[in-house]
Amino acid sequence: MMAAISAASSASRQVVILERLPRPGAKLLASGGGRANITNTLSRADFIKRLGRQGRFALPALEAFGSTELREMLAELGVPTSCPDGLAVYPASQRAGDVLNALVRHCHKLGVELRTGVRAARLRLVHERVEGVELTSGTSLSASAVILACGGQGYPSLGGSPDGCELARQAGHEIITPTPALVSLDTAETWGRSCAGLAVSDAVVCIDLPRHRRSENGDIIFTHRGLSGPAVLDLSGDIAELLTKHPTVPLVIQWQKGMEAGDWRHRLDAAQRTAGRKLVSNVLGQWLPHRLAETLCIQVGCEQTKVAELQARHRDALTAMLGAARMMVNGTGGFDRAMVTRGGVSLKGVNPRTMASRIVSGLFLAGELLDLDGPCGGFNLQWAFSSGRLAGLCAAADGQ
Ligand SMILES: Cc1cc2nc3c(=O)[nH]c(=O)nc-3n(C[C@H](O)[C@H](O)[C@H](O)COP(=O)(O)OP(=O)(O)OC[C@H]3O[C@@H](n4cnc5c(N)ncnc54)[C@H](O)[C@@H]3O)c2cc1C
Predict the structure, then answer these.
(1) How many angstroms does the Cα of residue 302 sit away from the middle of ligand 1?
(2) Whose CA is nearest to atom 48 of ligand 1?
(3) What SS3 class is residue 140?
(4) Sheet strands (E) in 240-288
(5) Looking at the whole model, is its pTM more than 0.90?
(6) End-to-end CA distance of the chain
(7) Closest ligand 1 atom to 151 CA
(8) Which atom of ligand 1 is nearest to the CA of 379?
């Protein structure tokens, strides 16, 4: 939609959006739990750093249309934005639907034709130039430029599919194997299941493989199958990739940032002097959600123990779990539950200054379809908007 709006507003071109679902923008509507964390207030340099090793590719698109420009445009379209925690930006109404409706309205105003329930099947290619699109219905459309913005493969119910990669492959683009990212993790350990639904704030989770150590700080949420929450989701893309080479990936979790086993031991020693008659789980409940404190005590076998009676072996096992709990990840929620796809169309085949294909002329690519993804926090929508904007402007200018 952003690409279509940009193309239609910069040149008098006839612009058509082909959308396979009955309505456009299903993912935008579901994003941020229905609130749409559309961008964030990080500086451009920090934003790019968080996009990882491919981040520099996004620079021209972000320079041309970054978070300030996005917020200005939405305000002009009647959707003011706000930033409740100083970092994550949402529509002020906290309704993703307001962003979607504004974009759809603007498409109509600019004369963009929105065809829903139609699926692009193939590109019409003649002498390394794109001349249109064939639909699964058997009909086809002629076009002087085509922008592929088919998104990733996550959440098929919201439009996720491998179609974009197939269309790009047909044009000769290399595809970096797609894997799920921003996805919940399955763990071999089952003890966390009794905490399902529980959130632990300000924890640290670390991938503990000799050649791949990476940690994230933030909230962790227990699920019926393992772990989720922002800190886990931000590592999940790396973990999904590692799971293609390793049967399991070890995680080490510090349940309270900066609190190692020795620090917990000091806390328990102090409690032995001052609160010896209290249950260990109640003492730990001062600093951790009570259900987690209780579950850890059950794991160690000291759930009914008073602090004064805590044996050294129980104390050592407990403090080890508090400061560095080890959990083995043996799977992910897969594409069904992946908010983002890692991999996709290789960036080598795309010009970052125009989003044009380097292989087929008249073809442009944008958004999550490309081999570029970000963590939680508005990075992926901003990338979709910025790259869509650049692709739309350059596609409209192409061949003029
Ligand atoms: C549950 C959930 C929550 C999220 N929350 C956030 C968030 O808060 N902040 C954030 O930054 N990101 C979030 N994301 C990620 C973000 O929504 C995506 O990265 C973003 O929507 C990608 O935009 P896109 O335009 O590239 O692709 P999409 O938004 O996926 O749009 C692609 C469209 O192409 C259509 N399509 C695919 N193939 C064809 C075909 N062959 N023919 C016709 N149409 C086709 C699809 O139906 C789809 O509507 C979330 C994702 C999910 C699933």
Answers:
(1) 47
(2) 159
(3) strand
(4) 249-254
(5) yes
(6) 22
(7) 27
(8) 11
